[in-house]
Amino acid sequence: MKSGIKTKMKSFDQAVRGGWHLDRRVPLALILAIILQTFTAVWWASAQAQLNDFQDTHLGRLDIQLEKAAAGQELSGVRLARIEERVGAVQETLQRIEKNLGRR
């Protein structure tokens, strides 16, 4: 019994001194699964980074379009105000013409 404990202690001491090591009892499927998961995580992170870059670029384009639309809307507001003034002037002229025609 003492020899079994000594053997276990000796192998434990060797493992501690020698650093981490892989035991043959670890199945190959587990190793491959860990490698595949690591590869998948890296691939997913790369795809997310690419998607973020695309979205940032697209968002920048949308901001530019929004600024142009806002500028165009401002110009449209100014044009509408001018048209309303002209329509008011035309209505006043039309009323004067109708008064003149009513007097005749």
Write the layout of secondary structure elements.
Elements lengths: L1 H17 L9 H76 L1
Spatial gap, N to C terminus: 137 Å
Range of helix content: over 70%
Number of E strands: 0
Low-confidence stretches: none
How are helices and strands ordered from N to C?
Answer: HH
If helices are DSSP runs of H or I spanning 4 or more residues, what is the number of helices?
Answer: 2
Strand content: under 5%
Output mean pLDDT. Answer: 86
**Which radius of gyration do the C-alpha atoms yield?**
42 Å
Describe the main β-sheet briefly.
none
**Which structural class do the helices and strands define?**
mainly alpha
Shape: rod-shaped
List keywords for this structure.
mainly alpha; 104 residues; 0% strand
